[in-house]
Automatic annotation (TrEMBL):
Protein known as: Metalloproteinase inhibitor 3
UniProt-recorded Gene Ontology molecular function terms: metal ion binding; metalloendopeptidase inhibitor activity; protease binding
Matches recorded under InterPro entries: Netrin_domain, TIMP, TIMP-like_OB-fold, TIMP_C
Keywords: Disulfide bond, Extracellular matrix, Metal-binding, Metalloenzyme inhibitor, Metalloprotease inhibitor, Protease inhibitor, Secreted, Signal, Zinc
Pfam families referenced in this protein's UniProt entry, alphabetically: TIMP (PF00965)
Organism: Ictalurus punctatus (Channel catfish)
Binding site for Zn(2+): C25
Family, per entry: Belongs to the protease inhibitor I35 (TIMP) family.
Cysteines joined through disulfide linkages: C25-C92, C27-C119, C37-C144, C146-C193, C151-C156, C164-C185
GO biological process, one term: response to hormone
Length: 212
């Protein structure tokens, strides 16, 4: 019975380590505009396949995507066919559903390959607000010279004209908040940056979810 007890002990230790690893991935809250501006690649795509590559301790997951539209990265990659991420969620790997949804995917490019993770902004396209879709299409680009300054507790202030104060974290409704879903920080003609919402549609039920 002793070998059995030892085996059970090892399994317990291994399972404990795996539970600890689930908490290893930690990401700071990011406004979608910052996610756009800090990414090499921003695309809308449908994930149509996946393959586990045996490299590293947990491997790398290679997702095959059908690119619907590219919003950023034209000079980096002409057309994205594969997106790479760590196979382990504890190491910030992303899990995409196959042949179900269109995703907004952001990432970085290394050696011609697109990499993403849980700390990047990845979301089902249908869950994005109209303002976020328009932001990815053109508005966020207009604010990449601006700085979105998070406010975690009061008082907080802007310290330069190129800052927009991001107060979503103060709301009891949690993240993502109103500014994240409906506003972009845009540089004005006078040189300062301020929040911009733009026109909104009263009847969103008839909107084409593939636009913009």
């Amino acid at each position: 019975m002793k070998p059995v007890c030892q085996l059970l002990s090892l399994l317990f230790v291994f399972s404990s380590l795996r539970l600890d690893e689930l908490e290893a991935c930690s990401c700071a809250l990011t406004h979608p505009q910052d996610a756009f501006c800090n990414s090499d690649i921003v695309i809308r795509a449908k994930v149509v396949g996946k393959k586990l590559l045996k490299d590293g301790p947990f491997g790398t997951m290679r997702y095959t995507v059908k690119q619907m539209k590219m919003y950023k990265g034209f000079n980096t990659v002409q057309h994205v066919q594969h997106v790479y991420t760590d196979a382990s969620e504890s190491l910030c790997g992303v899990k995409f559903d196959i042949n179900k949804y269109q995703y907004l995917i952001t990432g970085r490019v290394y050696d011609g390959k697109v990499y993403t993770g849980l700390c990047n902004f990845n979301e089902r396209w249908e869950r994005l607000s109209l303002a976020q879709k328009k932001g990815m299409n053109h508005r966020y680009q207009l604010g990449c010279n601006c700085r979105i300054k998070p406010c975690h507790y009061l008082p907080c202030f802007v310290t330069s004209k190129n800052e927009c104060l991001w107060t979503d974290m103060l709301s009891h409704f949690g993240y993502p908040g109103y500014q994240s879903r409906h506003y972009a920080c845009i540089q004005q003609k006078e040189g300062y940056c301020s929040w911009y919402r733009g026109m909104t549609s009263r009847d969103k039920t008839n909107m084409n979810t593939t636009d913009p």
